[in-house]
Amino acid sequence: MAWRFAVSTLGLPGVPLAEAARIALAHGCEGLEIRVHPDEEVHLGMTSAVVLDAGLAIACLAGYAKVCAPGPDAPVIAELRALIDLAYELGAPAIRVFPGGDGRPHERIAAVLDDLRAAGVRLLVETHDSHPTGEAARRIVEPFEPADVAVLWDAVHPWRHGESPTRTREVLGEYLGYFQLKDARAADPTPLPPGDGEVPLAECAAVLREWSGWVSLEWERAWYPDLPPVEVALRAAARWLL
């Protein structure tokens, strides 16, 4: 097992990247998952450089493109290319995207495959919205090589839709590219520090034991502003990692 621990800046809305990096390093993180959003320092079309503290890597750029969005292909492809270009400029190894509907993901991903390879960037489709389980997300990525296109396993969504961690790991196989650590209760989507909810995180740890890759804490304070500071969740995540 060779997990690398990161934290998403979704848990630090509006916080300057330098301060987010300081918090990440202080809690034993090796990487920062950077949210790409118009309200944040890192956004599509930005021109200024981003420099993180020594010893901290960019684990992923968390974008909001939807590869299965209904409607024409061109806007989706353009957004994917913009994310890839930004990842290349910042030295990020991967971009996170959402499914987002019942559109034409294979054609859209194929259109940017050369861009991904030229930039050295991997596209990660999250288990989310229209494709919340590992089985559903794999259908999006399996026409492609897992080195180019893989799945980001969000710990909550597959479980909430009846797919156990053991099953998620089994169906993703070599297409597992990233793991987002989260917790909540079945009847309430409000995030909880890892270990305080009902997500079977011990089972997640067991099935990921032989896997190597980024494990990133996603603390959704941007959507739930009354949550405790991200440091509370980081301390709980550190206990789970141990």
The CATH H-level superfamily is: Divalent-metal-dependent TIM barrel enzymes
| Count of the domains | 1
Under CATH, the topology can be stated as: TIM Barrel
**In what order do the strands lie side by side in the largest sheet?**
1-2-3-4-5-6-7-8
What topology emerges from the helices and strands here?
Blueprint: E1 2-8, H1 17-26, E2 31-35, E3 57-66, H2 73-90, E4 94-98, H3 105-111, H4 113-119, E5 122-126, H5 134-141, E6 149-154, H6 156-160, H7 165-172, E7 176-181, H8 201-207, E8 212-217, H9 230-241
Parallel strand pairs: 1-2, 1-8, 2-3, 3-4, 4-5, 5-6, 6-7, 7-8
Helix pairs in contact: 2-3, 5-7
GO molecular function: isomerase activity
Pfam family, one: AP_endonuc_2
Keywords: Isomerase
If you had to describe this structure to a student in words, what would you say it looks like?
Strand 1, helix 1 and strand 2 form a beta-alpha-beta unit. The radius of gyration is 17 Å and the shape is globular. It is of the alpha/beta class and 242 residues long. The protein has nine helices and eight strands. It has one domain (2-241): TIM Barrel. It has an eight-stranded parallel beta barrel with strand order 1-2-3-4-5-6-7-8, surrounded by five helices.
